[in-house]
Specification:
The structure holds two protein chains of two kinds. By secondary structure, chain A is α/β, with parallel strands linked by helices. Chain A has two domains: 122 residues, Roll (Urease, subunit C, domain 1), CATH 2.30.40; 298 residues, Metal-dependent hydrolases (TIM Barrel), CATH 3.20.20. In chain A, 30% of the residues lie in helices and 21% in strands. In chain A, α9 crosses α10. Chain A is globular and about 65 Å long. About 6% of the residues of chain A have low confidence. By secondary structure, chain B is of the alpha/beta class. Helices cover 24% and strands 25% of the residues of chain B. Chain B contains 28 helices and 46 strands. The N terminus of chain B is likely disordered. The chains are: A alpha/beta, B alpha/beta. Chains A and B meet through α1, α2, α10 and α13 of A and α17, α24, α27, β46 and α28 of B.
Amino acid sequence: MKKIVLSIISFLFFTLFVKAQDDVYPAPQQKGTIYITNATIHVGNGQVIENGIIEIKDGKIAKVGTGISASGNVIDAKGKQVYPGLILPNTDLGLREIAGNAVRGSNDFAELGDWNTNIRSVVAYNTDSRIIGVLRANGILLANVTPLGGLLPGSSTIVQLDAWNWEDAAYKMDIGIHFNMPGLLARSRGRFAGFPGAFPQAGAGADPVKAAMDKIDDVKRFFREARAYFGEPSHKETNLKFEGVKGLFDKKQKFYVHCDQVKQMLIAIDFAKEFGFNVVIVGGSDSWQIADLLKQNNIPVILNREFNLPTLEDDDVDQPFKTPYLLKKAGVLFCLNDDFEETRYRNLPFNAGQAVAYGLSKEEALQAITLDAAKILGIDDRTGSIESGKDANILICNGDILDMRTSVITDAFIQGRKVSLDNKQTQLYDRYMHKYGLDK
Amino acid sequence: MRKMKILLRPGFMLSVLCLATALFAQQTFPVNGVADPRTGCYAFTNATIVKDGLTTLSNATLLIREGRIIAAGNSVVIPADAVVVNCAGKYIYPSLIDIYTDYGMPAPETNSNAARGTFNFFQQQFTSNTKGAYGWNQAIRSQVNASEKFVADPARAKSLREVGFGSVLTLDKDGIARGTGAFVTLADLKENLVIIKQKASANYSFSKGTSTQSYPSSMMGSVALLRQSYLDGQWYKTNPVKEGVNLSLQAWNDNQNLPQIFEASDKWGVIRADRIGDEFGVQYIIKTGGDDYQRINEVAATKAPLILTLNFPQAQNVEDPNDARFVSLRDMKHWELAPTNPGVVEKANIPFCLSSADLRDVKQFWANLRKAIEYGLSEAKAFDALTKMPATWLGVYDKVGSLDQGKYANFLITNGPLFNEKTSIIENWVQGEKYDIKDELWNDVKGQYNLVIAAPSGTKNYVLDVKSASSANVLSGSDTLTGKFSYDGKMVKLSFSATPARKPGGNSGGFPGGGFQGQRAGGFGNSGIRLSGVNNGDVWQGNGEDSAGVAVLWTANLVKASAPEAPDTSSRRRFPLRLGKVDYPFGAYGSETIPKQENILIKNATVWTNEKEGIVKNTDVLVKNGKITQVGKNISDASARVIDGAGKVLTPGIIDEHSHIAAFSINEGASSVTSEVRIADNLNPEDIAIYRELSGGVTAAQILHGSANTIGGQSQLIKLRWGVNDEDLKFKGADPFIKFALGENVKRTASTQGNTRYPDTRMGVEEVQMDAFTRARDYENQLKALPAATRRNLELDALVEIMNKKRFITCHSYVQSEITELMRVADKFGFKVNTFTHILEGYKVADKLKAHGSNASTFSDWWAYKLEVQDAIAYNAAVMQKMGLNVCINSDDAEMARRLNQEAAKTVKYGGVSEEDAFKMVTINPAKALHVDNRVGSIKVGKDADLVLWSDNPLSVYAVALYTIVDGTVYFDRQHDLQLRKEISAERNRLIQKMIAEGRTNPTGMTAARPSLQVILHCEDDVDHQKGMLETNSYDDIVNQNQ
């Protein structure tokens, strides 16, 4: 009975919010030409063009530079900063409306079982999530929506954050298979089992590290059998779980290994060697310890959260802040993520800003949330920088986007479409400023 | 810190007299068979007798009878019926006493959740499971008497006797009040006879043990329960009618006259326990966790006598660098320094006893005791700590602890001075009963014997050269014969080949070593002659068979005894110890001396004053004696250390209004009203979060109880003084606060197995508040009318303080309905809600908040992590600020607290607050909300010198704190931090190498590498906040990890 009441309450809440967002419309397909002029253009590849002009045509960036003649539909960005749209490289956005497990009905991120290679996140992606508009307002225009459950939770899809439905949203489908590698730490408790980076659940007296290694071996066996399966021209019985990882062997998909410990990363490298997969480390909080090794093996890293505490009390107090710099120095391809549940990932640009305070240049930091994210996700042919031929995924900002002091975005374009920056939060703000008769 | 009561009962003299006349022993137990009365009279002659730590007699006699000592001295008359034992060359000591054991106690029935001692979110048990007329809380087990549960355990007694113990205090180590301990001997006699003192101690701890009752679920709760029990005990003496018979309180009161022993698990626990004792006029004897050396001054200041463990951490296997990476410097340092603990305690002139408690195997006792001696403990104090001290403390020195007349005949016979490495305990006599430990060592059989073997074929002579009880050579002419020898103190076994062994490969080097031992015998074929016999002093004799199976007879006569060995000095330090230093705090980023206050002059900085002067450029600030003494241009002061502020920004220190760092527990969620618990009772000044937050410019933080219940616990405002002790961490003189909470956490929405703790709705939350304050009002009235008859109630005391505006509320809140609700309850009881914290829907009721007069302390941009925070908006702070509220931005998070300046900056982005006003939200505004704005929060002459020098505009993501100063003391200096990192790295490396070396020499004493878990406590116990690999949310996890 209580559950039913709860569901009704949650239902009412959701209905309310959906209604409140009714006047925020996804923008229609962009046709014709738009110019952004007088801009300081941060290209995303390290280059800055002062007083530049961008020509957008039919959703694509047609020209970038100075001295381009502009007329008609012109947006004057004088005194403003222009950036590529930001990319959130690993997220449960649209799969979980309320963080944690607080409201079960809002959870669509973790399927049952360990072997979910056939699971596809995109079909559950909720384009009407109220989180999306808030991220868009902070410049996040693309996100890699990732399932979480089990050892092999399935494949992720990159979505653009201004869509009517998931088919509209899909920017690049099923880009990779994810692997939550069990932790190899001898912790006495496994309370957090079932989540990425979870510690193995040890039975009484069992060796948790051994249990984890056994599970990792199971995963290897899975791929060995999958490889053999693809070795035969046709199958009497089709195995959907094997079919789900075909792209890894064809190198059409990447293998996203979620782990933080050095030992885990060594195993991830071993996966790349044995199966020839394009391995990407997700998490990588200790990746700085083996940066040179990662570089040698061309293993890119998605750093999950920079706003994090150092792992051990002995660690440098600013360790997570300077990890991006250490990877950069070693030549490792990396990008930054924000998976902090309490703020729901909206602080991605400030993660990059923090890395500037601890060693990166501003343009390098920007690259870590734009072009390098696109490279790691395999979409740099279409986005990640303001270069001709790419999709017009562009932000105009009042000031420095990486610094919360000045990071106010005034315009955002996805595939040339000028998208709304209104969201649930701005609407409530308006509503109560109205109540009190205050001016914004 | 009162003087310990030493209980000398008047019965002492009497019992001695009784003993002398107890000539005809009677007992109730019938004998199945024929009576066998014996007097057990023995005289041990020619011994070196160590009667006690001060008296050693040479060539003396110990006389015992009926299990008691009759005499010990140089002129003892030996009665005719005495069995005389010649102890020439032997030493006699009183048997040792272990003051802290659970010998003979039944194993506790453990409940895994309860044993963890943390708040069990899923199963709430509100009442005690103990049946009978006992008290309300299952962890108060004052009615338990160890003497009633005691069952002698011969196997355990044997293992304790083998290391030299003769008597022990035994107690049921379960619960917070653990009842009484019994003093028993380790003789294998009926329980009736071994119990020397039924009630020798009353025992306590902070751990609720097997109690399945939810309360207490935190360290704070344990302290509160103890304090309330003292009050309840006093009240119970008035025979309160409504209470009826309460056997727990009855026993609690009765036990107060006994020695009071408190088990603490660490140094802070020692200090914490002593404070409880001080409050109620009790001086506990405190059993410590063995880390007292880390805060020896504070531990000494308690004046508590200590019981020290000899359990030292094992070396960890850190050979694999990826395993070593997760072992903290703190754990490695403790591994190195723990053996210094007894010596350090001794040097601090703290009275102490030593115990085998906590040893993984009691067999380690001597190795560890000798290690402690090697690391600084004196032999004399060690001896006292195992004999006279425990006996005196427990009031049984009239019975045990020395070899004085009338005491129990509990003594050790050894073959050398007790603490020498080569000394062995030969016999351990307990209550006049002999227990052999290493009887083979009684006779020193070393020496050369003339071995004569008489066979039918004739007699043969050999020389038998005995090296030890298990090693001997047989020499025939110039040949050394191979074989086997053993002597067990009674019987001799010898076998050897009559012909010399063939030398392998013609090696002229001869048989290696010359001697032969058991393991070598097999390799050389036929064992030849096999002899068996008895040792009768210097003459041995027996029978045997030769290799043909023909019977032989043999004798061996001592020809030449071995020369006595050089004096044994091996217990003394063999090489100078190279040990690390004790740092404050103990572990990474500590230093040998706690940072000191300085006079500081910051020159030419841009100063954000938070005063009417606003932001002023090129300004100097002078700090003296912890205060800001001058703000202006061109200040000079010869006494001051000058810090160049050119191009930098000086601001007041950041104050975090909502923090959960630096405490051993945060939530006492076992009931809905827990105003009796206090964060101050469990501060952890060594939490690395303090240093990390200093690196982010935080100088003060309000440590709040969590939000697990409607009325939580009492808060503690601290200053981030890294290195000081728990008391010095406190922000002195600040108004006391308390935490309240509303909404989902208090109705336990996240519980997946349903909630049984009232309330389950916001409707019920109001009633919990109404009920609590109504009870408090009635209580206050009764206290005024009938002060003597009223039970002091710690829970209601705090609520009375709120109503009298002497304590102030910080209330966790989210949605507008609940915010308004609490304001209306407060209106009814005539007080105001000082601060709403979180208050994510504050923007919806900003006008009401303004009218009520509350402060608002919120997150900058948290949202959508629970249903009740769906309407949270990042513009909240700006709207409330525009409505005229005093708005703070808080962290509630040990990570984000390092960046509160950035969080404040978000109000510029969301809602257009001015930069100056934004920064006030993390400085002067929280100071106002906490009633300390006269002391901190702005840069003004006379205020505390809590300052931060930033590299840049403090609201910028690019700004870092260069110096963080509290009370004129530099606690964080970014340059010095780089130096500390190098030191940490070097010290880690040194210890890793040392552990590896120790592990290689003593592989069995080594354990697998144990990741050092990092405890991060949160507002809500129920949320899995875990982020880092080593993060955990309970200090109990560390205890479990280390088991």
